[in-house]
Amino acid sequence: MRFTVKKTTLYVAGLLLLGLTVSLMLRTNLGMSSWDAFFKNLHDGIPLDYRWLNSIAAAVLTPIAYLTQKKKFTWWVLFPVAISFFIGAEIDLIIGFDLIPDVAQRGWFLNYAYLAIAIVLCAVGLNIIAWCDFPMPALDELCRSLSVLFKTSHGNGKLLGELLALILAVLSGMLFSYWDVYYNIGITTLVFAILIGPAIDLVKKPLRRILEAINA
Fold first, then answer.
1. How far is Cα 100 from Cα 98, in angstroms, rounded to an integer?
2. What is the C-alpha to C-alpha distance for residues 186 and 200, in angstroms, rounded to an integer?
3. Which of 96, 191, 192, 196 has CA 20 to 30 A from 34's CA?
4. By C-alpha distance, which of 88, 120, 138, 95 is closest to 191?
5. Confidence (pTM)
6. Taking Cα atoms as reference points, which of 62, 52, 37, 59 lies closest to residue 172?
7. Hey, is 185 helix, strand or coil?
């Protein structure tokens, strides 16, 4: 890793895009992505703010991801925890202060527009973070470890991670008896799981050319 002002700025921008992705989906009536449905169940059932949920998840998932990739454990293993706290705090801020309008009751067009924007922002954000070659958020480090384990693309690793999270979302929903909201699983869960992997792979090459030009 080589820290520069440009790379650090782009990295922070990528992290902000991930927090914005979750916030957009929280403002629809279409349900959540698999991981976010799992966290929403924990957020409402325990309850804990997202900044603490993200940090605890990072502390559990990052060592698993490092072991899967056979990475050497250094102090950098703690960095995803700080990243996850940052993203969680951003989500708490956006939702707490209503910085993004809620479109849950405003018709299908705006709801699906939010979902489409969220998928694009997530794909762009993850590619920016991967290009910077700085530590990834814990969830995405886990997805990358799955891509390494199964010798597939980052996009396919993200799909595998979403399927794993779907199982966790159902189990946590059953634990807290969220039958009335279908465990916070909805059309977003299926659409996001299917499209996020291809979206990551689709924007990777053109976005990297743009990033290389910015960094030149």
1. 5
2. 22
3. 96
4. 120
5. 0.84
6. 37
7. strand
Q: What are the residue ranges of helices labelled H in 27-151? A: 34-45, 50-69, 79-96, 108-132, 138-149
**Rg (Cα) of the chain, in Å, rounded?**
17
Are 53 and 12 contacting, i.e. CB atoms less than 8 angstroms apart? no
Residue 155's pLDDT band (cuts 50, 70, 90): confident
Contact (CB, 8 A) for 42 and 172: yes
Q: In the block, which residue shows the tokens 């959540």?
A: 32
Taking phi over 0 as left and psi of -120 to 50 as alpha, with beta for the rest, 14 belongs to alpha
* pLDDT at residue 67 tops 80: yes
pLDDT tens column, 97-151:
999 999 999 999 999 999 999 999 999 999 999 899 888 888 888 888 888 888 8
Of residues 110 and 152, which shows the higher confidence score?
A: 110
What is the C-alpha to C-alpha distance for residues 195 and 120, in angstroms, rounded to an integer? 10
Query: At a CB cut-off of 8 Å and minimum separation 6, what does 127 contact?
Result: 14, 200, 203, 204, 207, 208
Burial (0-12, 13-18, 19+ Cβ within 10 Å), 213: exposed
Q: How far apart are CA 94 and CA 111, in angstroms?
A: 17
